[in-house]
Amino acid sequence: MLALLAAALLSAAAPAPQAAEAPLVMTAMHLHDPWIVADAGTRTYYLFTRNEATMTGERRLGTMVYASRDLKHWTRPKLAFVLPDGLWAKAGSWAPEVHRWKGKWYLFTTFHDPAAKLGKNGTRETYRRGTVLAVADRVDGPYKLVRGGEPIVDPKLMTLDGSLYVDPKGKPWLAYAHEWWQTTVGTIEAVPLTDELAAAGPPQFLFRANEAPWAVGQKQPNGDTVFVTDGPELYRSKTGELLMLWSSYGTKGYVEAQARSKSGTLAGPWEQLGTLVERESGHGMLFRTFDGKLMMILHRPFNYALGKLYEMRDDGDRLSVVREAVELDGEAYPTHPCVAGHSSFDGAHPGC
């Protein structure tokens, strides 16, 4: 009892992290799985990512949001969403996406609970993981959970990175990654949604990670080789082609790649078009600037992630990278020693 009391007193006495000062530039921002909304009404860019206590001064699990008028100088982030106490989820807050739908703003973000077991895949103990939905009147929140925070996809499936797609008939869908932890070879799947953004049917298989010629399997301690699927986002090209951004691992680490539906619908079949950005870069998304430029933001590297902005070109049948916008995101390859020392960089700082 005394030990518990002492621990509680120490915890209470521990100072809160100091929030980052503004204005910020991307080389000073934690940006794993970044998502940008270009809000035309306020001509403001809102950048969402999981909450980091070192940036907000808040230790709570949730989503933080930065704001900018020029994509270069950003406000100190604030909490847009906080996971309520007592929910099934205990960790995560990954890959936030924010979309306007039926007059409201909706946040999709992934949580998990390692203690909520789902059974074994070989020697791996699977557990509950899925994308939840929250709603707000303003793009920057505050967001409140919908349907008690239950995952959109069947909770028996270990899924992540749910992404909203609205088809040409106005029907909403959720595209997502079915986690390799449960499937060994990760897949991209989709479920139809109701107008309330609840699942309206069973999952539909789109493709497997190892269908991409560039994808490299990751050897696991138990001896098997797994293939990762991450971060799907759908995009309709200027000629009507249905394209998808997604990520996995290649010969030089994490990769941002694209695929194309041969039928122009989610049903596919899907053909892999190759990589867009390599060298520990991935989980990208597309947006348009207020002057009409098509842009992509992704994070690099996977650990100690920083945001990287690319000017893109819509070629009709695919997307192409024009250039990295280094005048906005800072150095093309970060020189922080713990980033530069990552295995796909120069290896000069192996102790990081």
Please, could you describe this protein's structure?
With 352 residues, the chain is mainly β. The protein has a single domain (31-340), classed as Tachylectin-2, Chain A (5 Propeller). The chain has helices spanning 2-13, 53-56, 180-183, 326-329, 337-340, and strands at residues 35-39, 44-50, 62-68, 78-82, 91-101, 104-121, 124-136, 144-145, 159-166, 172-178, 187-192, 204-208, 218-219, 225-226, 230-236, 242-250, 253-261, 270-277, 282-288, 294-300, 306-314, 319-324. The strands form six sheets. The chain has a four-stranded antiparallel sheet, with no helix packed on it. A four-stranded antiparallel sheet has the order 5-6-7-8. A four-stranded antiparallel sheet has the order 9-10-11-12. The longest helix is centred in the N-terminal third of the chain and has 12 residues, at 2-13.
Topology:
Layout: H1 2-13, E1 35-39, E2 44-50, H2 53-56, E3 62-68, E4 78-82, E5 91-101, E6 104-121, E7 124-136, E8 144-145, E9 159-166, E10 172-178, H3 180-183, E11 187-192, E12 204-208, E13 218-219, E14 225-226, E15 230-236, E16 242-250, E17 253-261, E18 270-277, E19 282-288, E20 294-300, E21 306-314, E22 319-324, H4 326-329, H5 337-340
Antiparallel strand pairs: 1-2, 2-3, 3-4, 5-6, 6-7, 7-8, 9-10, 10-11, 11-12, 13-14, 15-16, 16-17, 17-18, 19-20, 20-21, 21-22
